[in-house]
Structures are given as structure tokens and as C-alpha cells.
């Protein structure tokens, strides 16, 4: 059982997922730019807008973590699970995430941010 309040836990998870999402978006942008699209700029614009939104939200999350002296660190990864250490107000907790769940949640966020990117 965690001692971390739900609001702070959500912010920690935001700081956990958004760097993964940013990496995916940056890689996809390169693939689009190198791809055989007839007209690339609309796709690039959507991805760039999504990247900007992710960066903004990640900055807010990291600012909150810094202000509250919360630390997040990946400590172990294998084929099925990834373990993170959350240090919250001097108390260290280990949280294990099922890798397919990490991927699925990142995909959900990708859809959300690409939609934001397409609406400007």
C-alpha cells in the first residue's frame, strides 16, 4: 500500500510516462520527415504540436516534483516488469509496472496528445 496521496501519485506517473511519450513522438517525427509522404508538413505540424504540449506538461510535473522534493527513478527492468523508486517526503517506495501496461498507457497518451496537436 502506498502512502503517496492520489494527486501526487498522478503527477509522479505523469513524470514517468511523458518522457516515454516524448521519445516516441521525436522518433516518429524523424520517420515522417524521412518518409515517402506526398505532403509531410501537416503530419509534422501535428507531431510538433503534440511535442510542445508534452514538454509543457512535463515541465509542470517536474516542477511539482522538485517543489515537493519527490524523486522518481527507474531501478530495474526485465522483459515483463519495470520497477521504479518513488521517494516521497523521505520515504522510499518501490512500484512495479507491467511493461504491456506501460506501453498501453503510453499509447493512450499518444492518442490524447496527437488529438491536441491536430486541434492546435
**What number is the mean pLDDT?**
95
Total number of helices: 3
Strand order of the largest sheet: 1-2-3
Strand percentage lies at 15-25%
Topology order in helix (H) and strand (E) letters: HHEEEH
Shape: elongated
Radius of gyration: 16 Å
Class computed from helices, strands and strand pairing: alpha+beta
Distance between the termini: 40 Å
Helical fraction equals 55-70%
Structure overview:
The protein has 120 residues and is an alpha+beta fold. 64% of the residues lie in helices and 19% in strands. The chain is built from three helices and three strands; from the N terminus they run ααβββα. A three-stranded antiparallel beta sheet has the order 1-2-3. Helix 1 packs antiparallel against helix 2. The longest helix is centred in the N-terminal third of the chain and has 29 residues. The radius of gyration is 16 Å and the shape is elongated. The protein starts with 5 loop residues before the first helix and ends with a helix.
Amino acid at each position: 500500500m502506498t502512502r503517496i496521496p492520489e494527486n501526487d501519485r498522478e503527477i509522479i506517473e505523469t513524470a514517468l510516462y511523458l518522457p516515454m511519450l516524448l521519445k516516441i513522438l521525436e522518433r516518429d517525427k524523424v520517420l515522417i520527415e524521412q518518409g515517402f509522404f506526398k505532403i509531410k508538413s501537416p503530419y509534422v505540424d501535428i507531431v510538433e504540436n503534440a511535442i510542445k504540449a508534452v514538454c509543457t506538461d512535463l515541465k509542470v510535473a517536474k516542477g511539482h516534483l522538485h517543489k515537493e522534493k519527490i524523486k522518481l527513478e527507474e531501478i530495474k527492468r526485465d522483459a515483463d516488469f519495470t520497477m521504479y523508486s518513488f521517494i516521497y517526503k523521505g520515504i522510499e517506495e518501490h512500484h512495479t509496472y507491467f511493461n504491456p501496461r506501460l506501453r498501453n498507457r503510453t499509447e493512450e497518451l499518444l492518442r490524447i496528445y496527437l488529438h491536441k496537436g491536430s486541434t492546435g
